[in-house]
Amino acid sequence: MDVQPLLAGEPSRVGDYRLLARLGKGSMGSVYLARSRGGRTVAVKVVRSDLAEDPQFRERFRREAAISRTVGGFWTAAVVDADPEAEQPWLATEYVPGPTLHQAVAENGPLPEQTVGALAAGLAEALGAIHAADLVHRDLKPANVLIGPDGPRVIDFGISRVMSSSAMTATGTFFGTPGYFSPEQTEGSEVGPASDVFSLGAVLVFAATGHGPFGEDGTVAMLYRVVNSEPEVGDVPASLRPLVAACLAKKPAERPTPTMILDRVGGAGPQGRQWLPAQVTALIDENTTRLQSMDEVVPATPEPQSPRPPTRAYDPVLPEPPVAPPPRQAEAAGPSHPRTASSKPAGAPLVRKDNPGAVFRTGRRSGAVAYAAMVFLLAYGAYASRGAIEIAENARVIFLLGVGCLVLSGVLSLVRALLPGLRLKVNSDGLLVSRVGLSRQIPWNHVSRVGLVGSGKKQTVAVWVAAGTPAPRSTWWHRVRGYHGGTKVFPVGSTGGLWTRRWQAKRMRDALYRYAPRVYDARLL
Ligand code: AMP
Q1: What count of Cα atoms within 13 Å lies in the side-chain half-sphere of residue 234?
Q2: What CATH number is associated with residue 470?
Q3: What digits encode the pLDDT tens for the residues 391-411?
Q4: Whole-prediction pTM value?
Q5: Domain-located, residue 344
């Protein structure tokens, strides 16, 4: 889960729910992690104010929220409360302490066959429950499937219909995620339950292979392929391929129903925690631990003294955000996570290699190759023209030494360029920088502050160490630089185009926030 502190001006309370943090922002509004008065954790979706002003939107929201509350089943995130009359309408659903399928695959790669089989069973049952309530999901995609400890949970059913026909999308903006939309949806034809089955097929391909069945590039090209091309299912495990291909049939009538899918894979449904690979279970455990510590971090706001008027969605927060920003001082010197260094036996590595986390790599450096080439040319030119230049006998040695130094710096640069790139692992223990078997650990309990500094190609992870801890120093395989009392330790997105860089920087910020919530400083730049 991508938990961010609440910003100044964001609500501290919605209905009877105390907001703890922001989970995300979608086309409809923001999603917040919240607690009910009785202590249940929920996800509250608050509608954007511009949408809330549209009376037709409000009417549809009212209707769909009411139907959503009737959806049962095991594998849907239950809608537990809603207020369509509030200034900004909102909807509260059961909180699922896991990543979305999209995050799980983006961070850990495709899921194993057994997990995908269980996912197929769970999602088919979820669709059955949604369709039984006379709803069609319309936007089943990896970001709308949460991976819970005991099985998947589908979110946003009903809501998608409100959005798909909202005034905002009537202006011609494409609503939804093209690679997961059915051909009939793409063409704007009648959409029924079979459309969700097509999306289910696409979601399963993503889970099993890490890419959608119609590729990941350009919206228009993808829309064309959804309608006209055969899906790419060659990488899907053979046991699931026929089922997935059937779900992806172009004609709705040729697709299986959720019941037919369950007849094929029902026996493989999620069974306890064994349904997930260890890395995903670890992510869920981390989320759960983080959740438990939320109340310690968020100062409790007093319960309202009098009943609230029903049309008021929330109280705006006054300038101070309710979640304290990460501390800058060594108050964070204690472990930022229960599994950090101090709980480990003496002699154990401070930053464990096998502790799951996010991994980043730098590419080989074409800049260093260019530098080496230039230096060699210069040295050659100087050496070749030594006869033409008049040099005093005693300066000759110095001249040759200079040429030798140039050659040496070129060789060193070439060696560095040819070495495999740097690797950085960010996990709940700290940072682990490595290159060909050499590594350096920077545990969180040695760090008082960490963040991204610089911009564009020059974005770098910088750390400030806690008092009494030595700062990381340059070595021949890992060069570091000072930065306003801290140390720049790892370049982010030094290779690739603008989008790669932005994406890498976002991944890095997410990883730092997730694994070092107490010392991560989002305000650095
Ligand atoms: P959405 O606007 O629906 O895409 O939601 C934004 C983010 O909120 C998602 O990516 C999820 O990480 C998170 N989220 C939404 N609903 C829930 C829920 N019921 N439990 C946990 N996280 C949720």
Answers
A1: 4
A2: 2.30.29
A3: 777 777 888 888 888 888 888
A4: 0.59
A5: no
